[in-house]
Every structure is written in C-alpha cells, then in structure tokens.
Amino acid sequence: MQRHELRGHLREALFIPSMKATTKDQALEELLDLFVAERYVRNKQLVLEMLRQREMLGSTSLGKGVAVPHGRTTATADVIIAFGRSEKGVHFDASDEKPVTLFFMVIAPHNDEGNIYLPILGSLVTILKDTKKRNALNKVTTFAELVALIDGE
Amino acid sequence: MGNSELEQLISLQDLDLMIEESQEVEKLGFSITGCSELRIAREELAAKISKPLLFRYERLRKKLKRAIVPVKNDICLGCFLHQPTAIGAQAREGVDLFTCENCGRMLYWLD
Ligand SMILES: [Zn+2]
To answer: Inter-chain contact A60–B68, Cβ cutoff 8 Å?
Structure first.
C-alpha cells in the first residue's frame, strides 16, 4: 500500500510522552481527552462509546507492544492522530498478550476529504511493523522526535 | 426529541459504518473477532430508538449514505450549505432535531 503522509495529522497538543493509564479503558480515555481538550471532539461520551465498541470488534493492538485505537465518528470533522507512550505498558487484550507501550489513536469523520483515513491506518501499521522504528518510538520524549521518526523513512 | 435520541442515532450510524468497514480494516492487519457481538449491540441500540426516527434514519442512509452529518461553522458537512445561525443556537440546546433544507440530512452541531 502507498504510504500516506501522517505529519499533517499529528498535533503537538495530542502527544503524551508518559501516559498515566494502567487499564485499557483508561488508555482510551486518556488519549481521547486530548481530542476533547483541543476541541476536535465535543462530546466525549459519544466517541468513547464508539472506541469501546471498536475494541469489541477486536482489539486494536497489533501485538509487539503497539496499539492503534481508531474509528470514524459523526461527532468530528477532522482526521487527527494522537500519540501516547506508556513506560510500564497497558494490558490491551493483544493476541500476543504483550502490554502496550505505544499508542496511536486515530479519529476520523465518516466522510473524510480525499478518503485518507484507511491509508493513514495502513501507513501506521507499516511503520509499527518495523522493529527499529518501534524501538525508537519507545524512547521518544518530544513531539519533534516523534515527527522526525514518522517523517524519516 | 431530546439530545440523547440524536446521540443514539449518531452511535447507531457510527456502528453501522464500523460494521461495513470491518473487512477493509481487517485487510490492513487488524484482527477482527467480534462481528457478531457488534451486530447484537447494533440491534440492541436500534431497539431503543423510536420507530419513526429509526425509519427516517434507515431511509436517509439508503438514499444518501450518511443520515446524520456534522455542522461546523454553521455549514452542513453533507452538502456545504450554510445553516441559519439561529437554528444552531437552538440545536445546541438539544430541544429539537434539525434537518438540512438542502440535502435533507439530520444535523449535529460540532461547535
Ligand atoms: Zn446539507
């Protein structure tokens, strides 16, 4: 699949170098709170419900300590990616049972301009398959470092 | 028509698209295991919504793909028609459900 540009969908305000969450639900909420604080989402409960239902469809963990919680909602207008890193890791019902330390949350509207939502998810999956990238992402402390890793192919 | 009924409709629409798109998401490398659980959740939610509203939702979905669309800066994000500002104020209070006069979709104010 063609790599899709991710940088334009990342926001410095939606970056947590050290997450507090210790459970799956807390992790979803902690990341979603960033969208709410930055007004990408007005109604938190509505989107939280959607994210929980998405987890019901299957864990969004890809194994190897990474997860990409995602979903489309009527309650947003932009395709935005939040990043979170957890030092201790969070149990996320991964198939390999590994605690998740790297999170990319993607929230998108139903009708996104240029149909970029699925290609963005695909690009994240590709990046996260790369062991070197994962190791580097697990050491990220600033937003600039994150962007450099995402941009630098 | 309270705010909660509109929110239930939005949840339903989000669920319907999630189910429709699940195969494409699976192709990207995500494991999809709970399709039947999600379909049950969908039917449980649909059962809570009043029949006429649900009928209207289904009809709009069939015709226009999206039955409810967001409104941002007073613009319907279904057809991009500007909505009267006065409607927005009422809609945010959740006393009534508003429809775009141009495309006929139900509207949800984002801001
Ligand atoms: Zn319209």
So the answer is: no
Q: Is the dihedral of CA B44, A121, A78, A109 positive or negative?
A: negative
* Catalytic residue flag (residue A110): no
A59-106 pLDDT tens trace = 999 999 999 999 999 999 999 999 999 999 999 999 999 999 999 999
Q: B57: domain range?
A: 3-109
Instruction: Please state, in angstroms and as integers, the Cα–Cα distance from residue A15 to each residue in A81, B45, B47, following that order.
Output: 9, 33, 39
CA of A129: which chain B residue's CA is closest? B29
Nearest-CA distance from B80 to chain A in Å?
Answer: 13
CATH number for position B24: 1.10.287.1490
ipTM surpasses cut 0.85: yes
DSSP A43-102: -HHHHHHHHHHHHHHS--EEETTEE--EEE-TT-SS-EEEEEEEEEEE----TT-PPEEE
In chain A the domains, ranked by start, together with CATH numbers, are 3-151 (3.40.930.10)
